[in-house]
Write a structure and sequence with these properties.
Blueprint lengths: L4 H24 L12 H14 L9 H6 L18 H13 L4 H27 L2 H13 L1 H7 L5 H32 L17 H16 L3 H22 L5 H26 L2 H5 L25 H19 L21 E6 L3 E6 L4 H23 L5 H13 L20 H16 L6 H30 L3 E2 H5 L9
Antiparallel strand pairs: 1-2, 2-3
Helix pairs in contact: 1-5, 1-6, 2-4, 4-5, 5-6, 5-7, 5-8, 5-16, 6-16, 7-17, 8-9, 8-10, 9-10, 9-11, 10-11, 10-15, 14-16, 15-16
């Protein structure tokens, strides 16, 4: 019996709704536990609170963490604190505390949880824009909804889920710009049919609203953490390559001409907008006088001269601060028990313990451990996708959708290899996870839809995919206690540490 289009549409939206319901429940259930600052919440939450009250991050006296746990959220000093990350993520944490209240952990974690829920929704949007498959869309969203890395990073008030969110929004806008500019090239070819010489330079497209929107989103990612600048660079490069490809399809033979003409314009549409967004996030620092480095020149710093002498002191002070932040990030090489270099992230070699508490024969922990079947399968999926792209390029076949997924991985993962000595943590990988689950969804869909497959082969494919998904969900249920700090007998807790490096 053939299923009607209306029934299929309802089924699709029900599936998407179920995914979002799972995402909301796993991120909001018992969000206030533990009622204390965990891991780097000790920095970001207190910085967010002083940012909201003073306009800049200030120092706290000894014992501030214990006071927070008991609901005492006053007592900050007005002495500025050196902070290594831009303010936007902390402004968002402060917004949650302003709405819900800072006395409860719900207040300082709610915006992070909402960002985590939104990340699931936007992963499905990106998957659908790429592959136009509702099945793949639901698979990718479902895997992210139940994965431990995404769950933990949505339940603690750190900044990385926000970087992932704004970076993915920027990627989606780049996809929409790509669709928009493809139509412009197609229209140009149609209006010049039969009159275009292959050596023509072709048009230059000045008005690209989606590219401007991408600049806003990627500027916001950079305003949360400086790692967003790599997303801006890679996704900007994607737009230039896409322009060259569409120009070639329109009948022009030189991609270099398009790069030379359109490339700088794309940078002009992206970079200044992103820079403005980033700068606006520092409004509190500029509007007040107490922030770190705010009086650098007044305290003896060397004022710019020559052509830059006109630049206001406030901006010069800010620029000096950013130079100090850059030096801090590139030189950070302190020992940490849970440090994990980038090559370990996909393999889940050293997850980060966010919180641990023990009792008489019991213990509870929050560990940012991804679901092994998601991350290990995702690693294999990305390797297979890279191999498929190379194979298709050799055969001069189109690779756009898979190459775009790999570009997302390149923007969010590969830059960390530029600083092998830097202290890093496994949870930085949350920014690449949307692309990881999309890659898994792609290969699962291929198993379900093998060309010219017999009925028996289709059944086998469906069984394999079904078994994989059931096992993923079962593993998520198994690891749920160490993602959310559920108290367990010590033996049961240890059973979830499959490797010594997980302890």
């Amino acid at each position: 019996m053939e299923i009607s289009a209306r029934t299929r549409s309802i089924a699709r939206w029900v599936a998407v709704g179920l995914v979002m319901a799972v995402a909301a429940i796993t991120r909001l259930w018992n969000l206030g536990h533990p009622q204390e600052l965990v891991f780097d919440e000790t920095y970001y939450v207190k910085d967010a609170w002083t940012l909201g009250n003073l306009g800049y991050e200030s120092r706290w006296p000894d014992g501030a963490n214990e006071n927070w746990a008991s609901g005492l959220v006053t007592g900050w000093t007005t002495d500025p604190s050196f902070v290594a990350h831009p303010p936007l993520g902390k402004w968002l944490i402060a917004l949650g505390m302003a709405v819900v209240g800072p006395e409860s952990a719900w207040g300082w974690r709610i915006t992070t949880a909402l960002a985590g829920i939104a990340l699931v929704a936007l992963t499905m949007v990106a998957a659908h824009l790429l592959f136009r498959s509702w099945t793949l869309t639901t698979l990718a969203g479902g895997l992210l909804a139940v994965d431990g890395m995404a769950i933990v990073m949505s339940r603690v008030a750190l900044l990385d889920i926000q970087v992932a969110l704004f970076g993915l929004v920027g990627f989606i806008f780049v996809l929409l710009d790509r669709r928009w500019i493809r139509r412009r090239w197609a229209d140009w070819r149609a209006t010049t049919a039969g009159t275009v010489a292959v050596r023509d330079w072709g048009p230059v497209f000045w008005w690209r609203p989606w590219l401007l929107a991408a600049g806003v989103a990627l500027g916001a990612a950079t305003a949360v953490k400086w790692s967003g600048v790599y997303m801006l660079a890679v996704f900007g490069l994607v737009t230039v390559i896409s322009d060259a490809v569409f120009a070639h399809r329109a009948g022009l033979d030189s991609w270099l001409r398009v790069v030379v003409r359109q490339g700088p314009l794309n940078a002009l549409l992206l970079v200044p907008v992103a820079a403005v967004v980033h700068l606006v996030s520092w409004t509190g620092w500029f509007a007040t006088s107490g922030g770190y480095g705010r009086d650098w020149i007044a305290d003896g710093g060397e004022r710019w001269t020559g052509l830059l002498a006109w630049v206001p002191d406030a901006f010069q002070n800010w620029w000096h601060y950013q130079a100090a932040v850059y030096a801090f990030h590139t030189g950070l090489a302190s020992e940490h028990n849970y440090a994990s270099p980038a090559w370990q992230w996909l393999l889940l070699i050293r997850p980060t313990s966010m919180w641990y508490e023990s009792g008489e024969g019991t213990a509870a922990e929050i560990l940012d451990l991804g679901n092994p079947l998601v991350w290990w399968a995702g690693t294999a999926a990305l390797v297979a996708m890279a191999a498929a792209v190379i194979h298709r390029l050799v055969r001069r076949q189109r690779v756009a959708t898979m190459a775009l997924v790999l570009a997302g991985v390149a923007a969010t993962y590969l830059p960390w290899f530029l600083y092998p000595e830097r202290t890093m943590f496994a949870f930085y990988a949350i920014a690449l996870e949307p692309f990881l689950v999309i890659a898994i969804g792609y290969w699962l869909l291929r198993l379900l839809r093998v060309p010219d497959a017999t009925r028996a082969e289709r059944i086998v494919g469906a069984v394999i995919v079904g078994a994989y998904l059931v096992t993923v969900v079962a593993l998520s249920a198994f690891f749920w206690p160490i993602w959310t700090g559920v108290e367990l007998p010590e033996a049961e807790l240890r059973a979830r540490f499959w490797f010594r490096s997980w302890i």
